[in-house]
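ARCHIVE CARD
Drawer: 12
Card no.: 0347
Subject: one protein chain, sequence and derived structure
Cross-reference: see card 0346
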Amino acid sequence: MKLVAIIFAVFALAIVPSRQDVVSASDACNAIGQFYEQGCSGLISALLGRSWKQASAYRRGDAIGSYGRYRALTPGTIVGFMGHVAVYTGRRRDTCNCMFVDVQGPRKHARCLQTYGSQAVYEYSY
């Protein structure tokens, strides 16, 4: 019985919560113009296929740049800055020909952006 408890404890410690920082860039582009009650978090939760509360728990990663100069990421990478998340699409012609898809705030529509200006942008993981 004690051995079973030890094996269970070791197995439980080995389980690492999954994380996802890439969604479909095409799906993000298809979201342009759609209304999101919960704003940018609503967009990300829809793309992740999770509830809004689950998609509100994220972790900021490395900086990708600012002033329109962003290091290359995989299209579909979730990015953002304090209080905001978006999807990097990489200006690919086979998607929506913009750099980011985001929602400016609660009760707004998804939009296409080329830059966030001087705002430093970071990778995010869920």
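Annotation on reverse: The beta strands are 35-36, 59-66, 69-70, 78-81, 84-88, 100-103, 108-113, 121-125. The longest strand covers residues 59-66.
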